[in-house]
């Protein structure tokens, strides 16, 4: 399953969050495939696309950041999946 995570941070936490990323990177978690990461131009929002069928693995990916950032995790599908779903639905 695909998930889009919208990460937000307060301006006063930006430097700590970016510093932590520069030092540790994004952890590689078995069961989670990182599909893409984008950061806003103001560097206070990040958009992360992941694929996983293991909720505990997704939790492990974001756990090191939950003390600093807010994570909104949204299940998503691409247009091809949506089309197949709508066609099957009738």
From TrEMBL:
Domain of life (superkingdom): Bacteria
Classification via InterPro entries: DUF3303
Pfam family name, one: DUF3303
Designated name of the protein: DUF3303 domain-containing protein
């Amino acid at each position: 399953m695909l998930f889009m995570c919208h990460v937000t941070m307060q301006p006063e936490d930006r430097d700590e969050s970016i510093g932590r990323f520069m030092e540790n990177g994004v952890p590689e978690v078995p069961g989670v495939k990182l599909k893409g990461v984008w950061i806003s131009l103001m560097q206070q929002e990040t958009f992360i696309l992941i694929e996983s069928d293991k909720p505990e693995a997704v939790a492990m990916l974001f756990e090191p950041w939950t003390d600093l950032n807010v994570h909104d995790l949204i299940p998503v599908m691409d247009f091809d999946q949506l089309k197949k779903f709508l066609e099957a639905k009738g």
